[in-house]
Amino acid sequence: MTPAAFAIPGDIAQLTGGFLYERQLLEALQHSGRTVRHLQLPAGFPDASAEETAQAAAILAAVPADTPVILDGLVFGSIDPVALRAMRAPIIAMLHHPLGLETGLSPARARHLLTREAENLSLAAHVVVPSPHTAQILQAEFGVTSERISIALPGFTRPARIATPPQRPPLILSVGLLAARKGHDVLLQALAQITDLDWQAEIVGKAHDPAIAAALHTQCDELGLTDRVRFLGVLSRADLDTRYRAAHVFALATRYEGYGMVFGEAMLHGLPIVTCHTGAVPDTVPEGAGLLVPTDAPDAFAQALRSVLSDAAQHRAMSLASAAAGARLPTWRDTATVMGRVLDAVGAKHEDQRPRY
């Protein structure tokens, strides 16, 4: 099996979808018997300083030519192409979604990132993505051929079956960074329209942008929801599973997802899902398990929540469909198998192209 390195910026233990995916994939590759070294790059990407970029370039340039590097998308999509050209090792780009599509970027910043990512994609030996949707974007908008892309769906660890009485009043659970893309502002607007119903809501997620986090707290207060909505911040895996087990419905008014691992977690717990028809969400949340409404549509989101909260038969049918979909989700071993095939193919091709003396 071809040895490899997995280059990830900052703390690999961060509890966000992308970092959870990469940490679990790294561990699954190692558990499969493959030699995969973790390379910790500076934490500033995709907005790295010149010093951080130089540090990352030096680390990447030091990797031997016979060791393919799986390079995290925050770095790959933003680093100067000069750093990638200086690498001896072949590059496998791990892209969750193009950085230039992130919500809230200035037009100039979005154009810069999309241009940079397009240039860097020409330097990658292969690209691995977590969803068919991201693969389609890379083909349609960046000209990456299908032969250079592999889809490694996120794996999931089945939660322990612990009998937990449902919370009363019914709990609406949302999990996602406090960032513009996650649409928590839309969720709050929707919740303000269903205050005649009995419910409590919890939003779990890191304050990715302090200004947005502060604005959400202010909005919650101005809408009169302070007594019914709690912001829980980052939770441990065990505590988060406890909240999933206590929940009645999972709700995320996301503006875009390259996959959306939290939907898989919700389905593992058999939760009906209310979310938005955007990005990879329609491919991730199957029909029957969720109600998908347009983005930035608080009225429609509120109506979907009202429907699930008010109709016991609908809730039960959605719960059964969600649990069935959760049972079909891949494991991390499955994800590692896909990446392992890519590593071996890239390693073999690189060996064939080495000069013979």
Gist?
The protein is α/β, with parallel strands linked by helices. It is 44% helix and 15% strand.
Structural class: alpha/beta
Domain count: the total is 2
Just name the CATH architecture of the largest domain.
3-Layer(aba) Sandwich
What is the oligomeric state here?
A: single chain
Q: What is the CATH superfamily of the largest domain?
A: Glycogen Phosphorylase B
The tally of beta strands, per DSSP, is 12
**What percentage of amino acids are in beta strands?**
5-15%
Structural summary, described in words:
With 357 residues, the protein is an alpha/beta fold. The protein folds into 2 domains: 4-155 and 331-353, Rossmann fold (3-Layer(aba) Sandwich), CATH 3.40.50; 171-327, Rossmann fold, CATH 3.40.50. It contains 14 helices and 12 strands. The chain has helices spanning 17-31, 50-61, 73-76, 81-85, 107-121, 132-142, 184-191, 210-222, 237-246, 261-268, 281-284, 298-310, 312-327, 332-353, and strands at residues 4-9, 36-41, 69-72, 91-94, 126-129, 149-151, 171-175, 200-204, 229-233, 249-251, 273-276, 290-293. The strands form 2 sheets. It has a 6-stranded parallel beta sheet, sandwiched between helices. Helix 1 packs across helix 14, helix 7 packs across helix 12 (298-310) and helix 10 (261-268) packs across helix 13. The longest helix has 22 residues, at 332-353. The radius of gyration is 21 Å and the shape is globular. It starts with a strand and ends with a helix. The model has no long low-confidence stretch (mean pLDDT 94).
